[in-house]
Design goal:
The structure is a homodimer. By secondary structure, chain A is of the alpha/beta class. The first copy, chain A, folds into 4 domains: 1-30, no CATH class; 34-167 and 337-355, NAD(P)-binding Rossmann-like Domain (Rossmann fold, 3-Layer(aba) Sandwich), CATH 3.40.50.720; 179-332, Dihydrodipicolinate Reductase, domain 2 (2-Layer Sandwich); 381-463, ACT domain (Alpha-Beta Plaits), CATH 3.30.70.260. In chain A, 37% of the residues lie in helices and 26% in strands. The first copy, chain A, is built from 15 helices and 20 strands. The first copy, chain A, has helices at 22-28, 45-65, 79-83, 96-100, 116-127, 137-154, 170-177, 192-203, 208-217, 226-229, 232-246, 265-274, 336-355, 397-407, 437-448; strands spanning 7-11, 17-21, 34-41, 67-75, 91-93, 107-110, 131-134, 158-159, 183-189, 256-257, 276-286, 292-302, 314-321, 326-332, 382-383, 385-391, 412-417, 426-432, 435-436, 453-463. In chain A, helix 2 packs parallel to helix 13, helix 8 (192-203) packs across helix 9 and helix 14 (397-407) packs antiparallel against helix 15. The N and C termini of chain A lie far apart (53 Å).
C-alpha cells in the first residue's frame, strides 16, 4: 500500500532520503505516559472546578489516554485558594505573568477574567511556546483578532470552549462538527441572568425589579448587574460566535446592543396573550451578499419555537446550517462544573494531539484583524415589530399614529387598545408587518414627539 | 523553554540521541498540500450527498486546511450513480471489496448499509491500513466490538458521526466535548419515522394506520416499515450511544425493545389530557453500581420536558452529565445532506490529523467484545406506569384489578373510568406510583387473565 497520509521525511544513516509513514515511525520511537504541565491563572469558581475535575478524571485520563495533567504553576489573588492547590512542587504566586512565562508550563490556563491584563499574559504564554486555554469571552471579543494570529504564528493552540455557552459544546460543534456547512444564521439565549429574570417575569408575573432582586439573592446576578442585564456579556459572546461561525472578525464594538432593563411586566403579559415569549436573543444573520448582521436585543418568539421553551438560567444556541439543517444545543451556560467541563475538553484536545506527536491544528475558523467581516447595520434589519404606545384616550390619536407609520411605509398587522382606568395612560399595542428597522426608528421619533404620547414607545422585535 | 509536548527522538549524524519538539521538526520537513484519497462504497442518497458536499466545500478545505479530497475509487450497484462520479481516473466497480482493498485509497467510506457484508469490507480496509468512515449503525451495533479493536490494533481511525442522529454531532460531543463527564443517563428521540407518526397522531388526531400511511407517502417510512416502527433502528443507535457513553460494549441483542405499533389514538388523547406527550424513547441509565440499563420503548413525557417539544422527523438526545449538567442536542436525524455533513466532519477529522503528521487517536470511548457492559434487565426498571384496561362495566371489576396490583406491591396514583357507549368495552386508566417492571408484568398477567378483561392491557412507562 502506498499512503500519502502522515509521512515524515528522514535521512537514513546511509544518506538516502526516506518518507516513513508516521505510524511506523511511532513504533520506532519510545513512547511514555505523557505528562501535560499546566499553569493556571485564576482560582475562583471556575478555577476550583477545573482542579476538582482534574482530580476526579485523573485516573481515567491516565488509563484511557495515557495522559497525566499536573499543575506546575498557579496564580491567584487569594492566598487561601493558592493553599488549596495540592500538586507537589507547584509554583505558587500572585503574579499571573510569572505563570505565563514559567519555563515548565506546557499549557497556560487563563481563568482570571478581565480584558487587557489577560491579553499581556496570553501573549507572553504564546511567545514562550505555550498552548493557551481560556474561558474569557471578554478577552477574546476584544483582543481575539490579535491573539489568534499570534497563536497561529507560533503553531500553538488557543482554545476557548468555555468562553461561550458554559458547558454547551458550541465552539467545537461550529469548528469541527459543522465544517461542511455555511452558517446562514444563528440565534442564541446566551446570558443566563437575563433568561432567568425574563422567565420569572413570565411565570411568576413579577416586575423586572423584583425578578432582578431575586436573581441577585440567588447569586444569578451581580450586585452591579449592568454587564448582564444591559446585554454586554451576551454581546461579547455573540461577536465571538459570529466570528467563528463565519471565519471573519466581528468587532463587538460595532454592534447594536439592547438589554432587558426596559422590558416591562406588561409587555410580557401582552406577548403571552399573543402566543409569544420574550427572550433576550443574540442574533446573527448572513445575507446572500455575505454581509453579516449581528446584534443583541429582546425579541418575541412564537411559543412553538424551540428557543421559546428554554427556561431559567439555561442557555441555548440555534443554528441554521446549510447542510445539517437546523440544530439546537441547550444546556448550562455558566457555573463551576459546566464551565470547568469545557475547559477540560480543551485540555484533553491539546493532550490528545500532543500524545500523537502533533500540535492541535489552528482552527480554520480563527479570525484576524485583517480579515474583518463586512457588517450590516441594525438599521437595515427587516423584521416585524411590537410597539407599545402610551397615549391619552382622545379621538384622533390612533389616526395620527397610523398616519405616521403609513408615511414611513410601515404596514400594520394588528392593533389593540386596552381599556384602562387611567384615560391619561392608555396602552396601545401595534404589531407591524416586516419593516426596515430605520423606518421604524424614524416613525417612532415622530410618534414620541406627539403631545398625546405620554411615554417613550416600547419596541420589541419579532424573531422567526 | 523545555517542553515535554510532542517530542520526537532522533539520532543525529554524530550518533547522539536528541529529543526534538515536533514543531521544530516540522519546520525541518517539507510540507505540501495534503491529498486525501477516498474510496466510497454506496452511492445512494447519502453517497450522493457526500459527493455534493465534497464539491461544494472543496475550495474552502484547500485554502483553510491545506487538504484536498479526491475520490479515487467508488462502488455502487447502480451504473448510473457510478457514472455521476466526476473525479478523473476514479476506479469504478460494482465490487465493494475492490474499493476496500484498493492500494490508492487512504480512507474507506462505507455508505452502503447492511451488516455482515460491510463487516468484511471494513475489515479488509483496516487490514490494508486504511482509515474507515461509516454511516452504518447496524454494522457497528452488530460488529463494533470486533471492528473497533481491529482499528485500534492497526492504529487506524474508525469514525461514525453519521451513524447516530444524522446531522446531530452527538458522537463527537460524547467522545470529545464531554470527556470530563460521566454520563449518568440519556434519553433520545432517535427514529424520525416514529416521531413523525406520533406527532401526527397527537396533532391531527389521526390513527396509527393513517399516520403511517402518510409517512410512507412522504417517504419518511419504508414500504416495509417494521425496522423503524418496531424500534429496531432505534435500538441499534441506543446500543451504540450506550456503548460510547460508557466505553463498554452494550449488545443490542440483549436489550428490551418495544415499538409504536400498539400506541393507540386513545392513549395519545389520554396522555394529552393528563399533560403528557407520547414519544418513542431510547433510554440509558447507569446505576450507582455501574450497571447499565438500555432499552427502547414508548414513554409518557411531561409536556414541559425538553424532549416533549421535539416534533415531526426531528431527532434529539438528552444527556445527564456529571459536570456539564443536562445537555440537549436537537436536529435533523436523517436525510441526504445532514447525514453527509456528519460524514464530512469525520473526513476532515482524519485529514486534520493527517495534515499534522499524526493519526486520529483511537477514541477512549471505543469498546470491545472483551469489555462488555454489565446490563440491568428491563425487569429491574423502576418507574411509574400508565395502564389502560379494557373491561366490562360490572360491579367488582375495579376491586379485583386493584387487589391484584396491591398484591404485587404496586400502589395507585390515579384511576379513572371513562363513560362509554359500549358497556362491554370500558377503558379504565390507571397511573401507578414507581414500581418495579417485573411486578407490573406479573400483575398484568393475572389481570389480563380475568374474565372481565376484554383486551390485553396497554402499558406505557413514564420518563422523567
Amino acid at each position: 500500500m502506498t499512503s500519502n497520509l502522515a509521512k515524515i521525511r528522514v535521512r537514513a544513516f546511509t544518506g538516502k532520503k526516506l518518507a516513513i509513514p508516521i505510524y511506523l515511525w511511532r513504533t520506532m520511537i519510545k513512547r511514555e505516559m505523557q505528562e501535560i504541565r499546566l499553569g493556571i491563572v485564576g482560582l475562583g469558581t471556575v478555577g476550583q472546578g477545573v482542579l476538582e475535575l482534574l482530580e476526579r478524571q485523573g485516573a481515567f485520563y491516565a488509563s484511557a489516554l495515557g495522559v497525566r495533567f499536573r499543575v506546575v504553576a498557579a496564580s491567584s489573588r487569594s492566598e487561601s485558594s493558592l493553599g488549596r492547590v495540592a500538586y507537589k512542587g507547584c509554583f505558587k504566586t500572585t503574579d499571573p505573568l510569572a505563570v505565563a512565562q514559567h519555563p515548565d508550563v506546557d499549557v497556560f490556563v487563563e481563568l482570571a477574567g478581565g480584558e487587557d491584563a489577560p491579553k499581556a499574559w496570553v501573549e507572553a504564554a504564546l511567545d514562550s511556546g505555550k498552548h493557551v486555554v481560556t474561558a474569557n469571552k471578554a478577552l477574546l471579543a476584544k483582543h481575539g483578532a490579535t491573539l489568534f494570529p499570534l497563536a497561529a504564528k507560533h503553531g500553538r493552540a488557543l482554545l476557548f470552549e468555555a468562553a461561550v455557552g458554559g458547558g454547551i459544546p458550541i465552539v467545537r460543534t461550529l469548528q469541527e462538527s459543522l465544517i461542511a456547512n455555511d452558517i446562514g444564521g444563528l440565534a442564541c439565549i446566551i446570558n443566563g441572568t437575563c433568561n432567568y429574570i425574563l422567565t420569572q417575569m413570565a411565570v411568576k408575573k413579577e416586575s423586572f425589579a423584583t425578578a432582578l432582586a431575586e436573581a441577585q439573592r440567588l447569586g444569578y446576578a451581580e450586585a452591579d448587574p449592568g454587564f448582564d442585564i444591559d446585554g454586554v456579556d451576551a454581546l461579547h459572546k455573540v461577536a465571538l460566535l459570529a466570528s467563528i461561525a463565519h471565519g471573519r472578525y466581528v468587532d463587538y464594538r460595532l454592534l447594536s446592543v439592547e438589554g432587558i432593563r426596559n422590558v416591562s411586566a406588561l409587555d410580557i403579559r401582552m406577548a403571552e396573550e399573543l402566543g409569544y415569549e420574550v427572550k433576550l436573543l443574540g442574533v446573527v444573520e448572513q445575507a446572500a451578499s455575505g454581509k453579516i448582521l449581528a446584534a443583541v436585543y429582546p425579541a418575541l418568539l412564537e411559543r412553538s419555537h424551540q428557543l421559546a421553551s428554554v427556561q431559567g438560567v439555561l442557555n441555548a444556541v440555534y443554528l441554521k446550517t446549510s447542510a445539517a439543517g437546523p440544530l439546537l444545543l441547550t444546556g448550562a451556560g455558566a457555573g463551576k462544573l459546566p464551565t470547568a467541563s469545557s475547559v477540560l475538553s480543551d485540555l484533553v484536545a491539546v493532550a490528545r494531539h500532543a500524545a500523537d506527536g502533533a500540535m492541535p491544528p489552528p482552527s480554520m475558523a480563527y479570525f484576524s484583524a485583517t480579515n474583518a467581516a463586512d457588517l450590516t447595520p441594525i438599521d437595515d434589519l427587516e423584521t416585524e415589530f411590537y410597539l407599545r404606545l402610551t397615549t391619552v384616550d382622545k379621538p384622533g390619536v390612533l389616526s395620527r399614529v397610523t398616519g405616521i407609520l403609513g408615511d414611513e411605509g410601515i404596514s400594520i398587522r394588528a392593533l389593540s387598545q386596552k381599556p384602562e382606568h387611567d384615560p391619561e395612560n392608555v396602552p396601545v399595542i401595534i404589531l407591524t408587518h416586516a419593516a426596515r428597522n430605520a423606518r421604524v426608528t424614524a416613525a417612532l421619533k415622530k410618534i414620541d414627539a406627539l403631545d398625546v404620547i405620554r411615554e417613550p414607545t416600547r419596541v420589541i422585535r419579532f424573531y422567526k
